[in-house]
Amino acid sequence: MPRPALHSAVLDAVGRSITSGDVAPGTPLTLESIGTQHGVSRTVAREVMRMLEGLGLVRSRRRVGLVVLPLAEWNVLDPRVIRWRLAGPGRDDQLRTLTELRHAVEPLAAAGAARHAGPAERSELLELAARMRVLGSRGDLEEFLGLDIRLHELLLRASGNEMFGALADVVAEVLAGRTHLGLMPASPEPEALDQHEAVARAVADGDPAAAETAMSALVGEVRRALDTLGPDPAATP
User: Fold this and answer.
1) What is the pTM of this model?
2) Buried-most residue among 17, 72, 82, 88 (CB within 10 A)?
């Protein structure tokens, strides 16, 4: 396996074991144990642990070495941490907290985009929403997902608020997670397609209030959908 891919595979494995709770906070980790468990060199193990330390999952302590940190210390907005948590037993809680973040941010971002987006961005939003309508009716979820991610990224980056723009990758992971975990309907709900078009139209028309209202309705629909989820299979003993 090429070295970058090897690093990524080991990082994913160790990251998932920590974020799932399989390795409890306070547990010491050594380069030797990582190397032996995953069949990698000490150099690879050291680089993986350095990356985990950058994500706030482990910390070096004198006379102990690297120890696993609790959730409060994690970089919870890093896309890799989000991806690992969505794949673990805390999936539903992670979706809930991320959707609450979206509900707090995206309506304001849509309103900002209605004020600040340029002509090309407004035109692209309308085109994206129209193409999503076509793909949604076909049930082509993977291509639909790509357009959905682009639409939300465009709104966040065109909002005029660099803090909102920095959350584009976070929202992309949430959208991808819902699709790849099988939490999306076989075809997008007509109401959701209507709301995407309403957001795009309001931004294109330069109507901040309408854009904020439409986006609030869109994310609100996601929150309601999450409320109907059954128990997370990964959380079942």
Assistant:
1) 0.87
2) 82
Paired tokens of 2: 């090429």
For CA atoms 132, 135, 139, 144, give the dihedral sign.
negative
Location of structure tokens 């409320």? 227
* DSSP type of residue 69: P
As to burial, measured by CB atoms within 10 angstroms (0-12 exposed, 13-18 middle, 19+ buried), residue 36 is exposed
Distance between CA 45 and CA 103 in Å, rounded? 39
pLDDT tens across the length of the chain (237 residues): 565 677 899 999 999 999 999 999 999 999 999 999 999 999 999 999 999 999 999 998 877 789 999 999 999 999 999 999 999 998 889 999 999 999 999 999 999 999 999 999 999 999 999 999 999 888 788 899 999 999 999 999 999 999 999 999 999 999 998 888 877 777 788 888 999 999 999 999 999 999 999 999 999 888 777 776 555 544 443
Question: Beta strands of the chain (E only): which ranges?
Answer: 28-29, 58-61, 65-68
Rounded to whole angstroms, what are the CA distances from 113 to 116, 166, 170, 231? 5, 15, 18, 37
- Beta-carbon count within 10 A of 58 CB: 27
CA distance 91 to 68: 20
* DSSP three-state, residue 116: helix
Strands 28-29, 65-68: pairing kind: antiparallel
CB 6 within 8 A of CB 47: no
> Hunting for tokens 């959701």 — which residue is that?
192
Q: Pick from 127, 132, 173: which is nearest to 153 by CA? A: 173
Do 125 and 155 contact (CB within 8 A), yes or no? yes
